């Protein structure tokens, strides 16, 4: 099997990266940074997010497994003390694949085809230097006109990240859906928004169309893009999915509990 190992870059993660690479090669696995079947990330969820974007063009051929060298992660759910066990499992066990939904974002500048992006956590749209006023269309119909700091559209596995800080719900990743949550909406007699996070199923497309002359900032996970103007931001559940290599069970709700309630 071809594998790659990525590191957050701190000493502990780099040491583990070296050790895992050497051990797996000693057991006959092939180190291949360009076309890996398994990507082992060492660091945190941010390290796995980066690896996802690095290998986004070959999601069908690549599975991910994350080791966290900081606090427990949602994607990085192995700890350094389990590394020998993980190496043994990788060498001796075929892994089970668990797939999570992704978000497809298409940024349209005019009536063009648009720039397509995939997000593992979320995409956000904000006004730069002022509130954004945006038409929110769901499945072809205007739902509301939003005015405020911005909107966050997250995946189920990203629902524990920025979305959670915005008061969004935590969604189980088996639900192929996207969630729209508001950032400081202005609500008065002129502007009225729903105020609650919305969860859309796979076949519903959400189109955000800025109406005012504000410059916009669009984020795709940890990447930030800035535009003088966009025509629209189109979001839906992507056809692609991320594949995680599972060697042992660690249920999602247990990870939520251990991350946010107690270890
Ligand atoms: P960062 O600002 O360095 O770290 C953001 C934090 O979010 C890190 O603690 C990271 O965990 C954690 N995180 C990432 N994905 C997560 C997930 N699915 N569930 C729970 N926690 C998660 O930024 P970054 O490392 O480049 O990550 C970018 C992400 O930051 C964005 O996708 C967004 O979700 C998040 N963010 C959150 C807020 C907020 O909560 N107010 C604001 C902006 C952005 P690790 O330490 O394990 O890497």
From TrEMBL:
Cofactor: a divalent metal cation
One cellular component (GO) term of this entry: cytoplasm
Active site per database record: 45 (proton acceptor)
Catalytic activity: NAD(+) + ATP = ADP + NADP(+) + H(+)
Gene3D superfamilies per record: Probable inorganic polyphosphate/atp-NAD kinase, domain 1, Probable inorganic polyphosphate/atp-NAD kinase, domain 2
Main location: cytoplasm
Enzyme Commission number(s) from the entry: 2.7.1.23
One of the GO biological process terms: NAD+ metabolic process
Pfam family for this entry, one: NAD_kinase
InterPro entries, per database record: ATP-NAD_kinase_N, ATP-NAD_kinase_PpnK-typ_C, NAD/diacylglycerol_kinase_sf, NADK
GO molecular function (one): NAD+ kinase activity
Purpose: Involved in the regulation of the intracellular balance of NAD and NADP, and is a key enzyme in the biosynthesis of NADP. Catalyzes specifically the phosphorylation on 2'-hydroxyl of the adenosine moiety of NAD to yield NADP.
Protein family: Belongs to the NAD kinase family.
Protein name as catalogued: NAD kinase
Organism for this UniProt entry: Halalkalibacter hemicellulosilyticusJCM 9152
């Amino acid at each position: 099997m071809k594998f790659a190992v990525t590191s957050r870059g701190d000493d502990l993660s780099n040491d583990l990266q070296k050790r895992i690479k050497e051990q797996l090669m000693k057991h006959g696995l092939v180190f291949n940074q360009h076309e890996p079947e398994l990507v082992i990330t060492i660091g945190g969820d941010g390290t796995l997010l980066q690896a996802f974007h690095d290998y986004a063009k070959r999601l069908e051929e690549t599975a991910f497994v994350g080791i966290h060298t900081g606090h427990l992660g949602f994607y990085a759910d192995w700890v350094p003390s389990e590394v020998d066990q993980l190496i043994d499992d990788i060498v001796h066990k075929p892994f089970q694949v668990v797939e999570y939904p992704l978000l497809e974002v298409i940024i349209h500048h005019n009536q063009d085809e648009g720039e397509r992006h995939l997000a593992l956590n979320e995409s956000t749209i904000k006004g730069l230097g002022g509130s954004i006023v945006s038409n929110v269309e769901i499945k072809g119909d205007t739902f509301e006109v939003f005015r405020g700091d911005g909107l966050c559209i997250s995946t189920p596995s990203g629902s524990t990240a920025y979305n959670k800080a915005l008061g969004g719900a935590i969604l189980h990743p088996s639900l192929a859906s996207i969630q729209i949550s508001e950032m400081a909406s202005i609500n008065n007699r002129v502007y009225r928004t729903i105020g609650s996070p919305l969860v859309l199923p796979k076949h519903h497309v959400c189109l955000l169309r800025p109406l005012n002359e504000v410059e916009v900032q669009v984020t795709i996970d940890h990447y930030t893009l800035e535009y003088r103007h966009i025509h629209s931001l189109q979001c839906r559940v992507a056809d692609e999915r991320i594949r995680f290599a599972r060697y042992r069970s660690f249920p999602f709700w247990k990870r939520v509990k251990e991350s946010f309630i107690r270890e």
